[in-house]
Design goal:
Layout lengths: L12 H9 L5 H13 L7 H87 L6 H12 L11 H155 L4 H12 L11
Length: 344
């Protein structure tokens, strides 16, 4: 038997690929393991017999791992083949892409120069169009400056096939700017005339306002004199009423002070009594809560003890020695066994 498994001779590396590719190719090796299992007679009545059962089970597990590792090694070797093919494919793709760029470079350079030439001419036309778009959006001085700047913009054979389009756009933009300038100048003239008329009207309104103010001032002086006389009479009467009211307020204030002192004394007594009652209730609630928590802790300990004892009994019934079973329960409760826990 193999030193690695004790139960089966592993397929040689030279024939392992054929064995794993064949349908049920591992059956002869599995048959060896099955024969060892069938020939083994388990005996749980003695410690030696139980150890023999555990040993044969461990050998079966090692045989599984050994056979699986042979297949895993084969898969790892086969995975390297596609990697080598992909690497060569990438090298060829990159090389041919570089060759393609090398062959196409003169055409790309020409196209870049042609695009730059067209962009330069189109920029001139776009600038003319932008000037034309300013019509109606600015004042007369700005429009006159735009017209002068556009008139000085050269449109000649330097624009090549774009010369005719540039000339059309320049004529169109100049026409729009000149029309806008005429409209703006007319509007400015009308606004100036309107402003002159408004100024004259404002001057008339100011004179009328001055006359009204003088008239009202004279009328107000007469009313003020009459009002002062009446005010002096009213003030004397009010002073008398104020003295009577102040005396009444003093009497009421004295009564209110007495009432508030009596109420403050009653409130202080009530607050003291309430504070004492609240403290007695807090102490009683605290004692009741401590007793409840103690009962809950005792119940939880008893609950966990029952579940742990049930698990311990199950381990022992399954053939585990009592000390081993107790150690297993302890390790599980302390969460020192990965992926295993007791649910309470």
């Amino acid at each position: 038997m193999s030193a690695a498994t004790d139960l089966v001779v592993l397929p040689p590396k030279e024939t392992a690929l054929q064995v794993f590719q064949a349908v049920n190719g591992l059956d002869p090796f599995l048959a060896q393991i099955r024969k060892e299992i069938d020939d083994f007679v388990p005996d749980v009545s003695t410690r030696k017999g139980r150890e023999a059962i555990a040993s044969i089970a461990h050998k079966v597990a090692r045989s599984k791992t050994a056979l699986d590792n042979v297949g895993k090694d084969l898969v790892a070797e086969l995975k390297e083949i596609p990697k080598k093919i992909d690497a060569e494919r990438k090298r060829v793709r990159d090389l041919l892409d570089n060759w393609k760029d090398e062959v196409r470079k003169p055409l790309d350079d020409w196209q870049a120069a042609e695009d730059a030439r067209i962009d330069r001419h189109q920029a001139v036309i776009d600038g003319i169009k932008e000037r034309g778009a300013e019509a109606g959006a600015y004042d007369a001085e700005y429009l006159r400056g735009s017209i002068a700047a556009l008139e000085q913009t050269p449109v000649n054979e330097d624009l090549e096939e774009f010369e005719a389009e540039a000339a059309r756009e320049k004529d169109k933009a100049l026409s729009a700017l000149r029309d806008a300038l005429l409209a703006r100048e007319k509007q400015d003239a009308e606004r100036a005339e309107l402003e002159r008329l408004r100024r004259l009207q404002a001057e008339r309104d100011q004179q009328e306002e001055r006359d009204r103010i003088a008239r009202e001032a004279a009328e107000k002086a007469t009313r003020d004199a009459e009002a002062r006389a009446q005010s002096e009479r009213d003030a004397a009467a009010q002073r008398e009423r104020d003295l009577e009211l102040e005396a009444e307020r003093a009497r009421n204030a004295e009564l209110e002070a007495t009432r508030r002192a009596e109420q403050a004394e009653r409130d202080a007594t009530a607050r003291a009594e309430q504070a004492a009652a609240d403290e007695r209730k807090r102490q009683a609630d605290l004692i009741a809560d401590e007793e409840l928590q103690a009962k809950r802790r005792e119940a939880d300990i008893e609950h966990r003890k029952r579940i742990n004892n049930a698990a311990l009994a199950a381990f022992i019934a399954g053939g585990m020695p009592e000390e081993c079973a107790k150690q297993a329960i302890t390790l599980i409760v302390k969460r020192q066994i990965p992926n295993i826990q007791i649910t309470y």
